[in-house]
Amino acid sequence: MYKIYCVEKGSNVEAIVKRLINEGFRYIPLFEEKMGIVDFCIDLEVITDGIINPNLFLIMKFVSDQKCYQNRNLKEITAEQLKNSVQKGYSVSCAGTKHMLQSIGYNVNNFNEYLNEIKLVS
């Protein structure tokens, strides 16, 4: 089961996500701890709709018994809302398996060592 979230601009969660983007793989354990997802998040995608002042999105895959994750700085959205918001963007290459992005209709290609370019398949 996965859920998609839009990260509130200017929030502490936005700062945590930006730190993950900037620091990469080595920050994942601290990111999971600060977000409170260590025990139940089994896959994670971090998505931006651009590079300069981007909107940030998270896709989290939870273990099957996890019904609810609450964070006031995250707004749950649908896959359709994500697709309407991000036709082309980037995902963080150090986080996630890319399976969730592909399953909702995105092509995922390497952009550089830190980012993948994502494009919605038309």
Tell me what the structure shows:
The structure is a single chain. With 122 residues, the protein is of the alpha+beta class. It has one domain. A seven-stranded antiparallel β-sheet has the order 4-1-3-2-5-7-6. β6 and β7 form a beta hairpin.
Layout of SSEs?
Blueprint: E1 2-7, H1 12-23, H2 28-35, E2 41-48, E3 56-62, E4 74-77, H3 79-85, E5 88-92, H4 99-103, E6 106-110, E7 115-120
Antiparallel strand pairs: 1-3, 1-4, 2-3, 2-5, 5-7, 6-7
Q: Which strand order does the major sheet show?
A: 4-1-3-2-5-7-6
Structural class: alpha+beta
Proportion of strand residues: 25-35%
How many strands? 7
- Radius of gyration of CA atoms, rounded to a whole number: 13 Å
Q: Based on CA inertia axes, which overall geometry fits?
A: globular
The number of domains: 1
A few lines on this structure:
The chain is α+β, with helices and mostly antiparallel strands.
Task: Jot down its keywords.
122 residues, 7-stranded antiparallel sheet
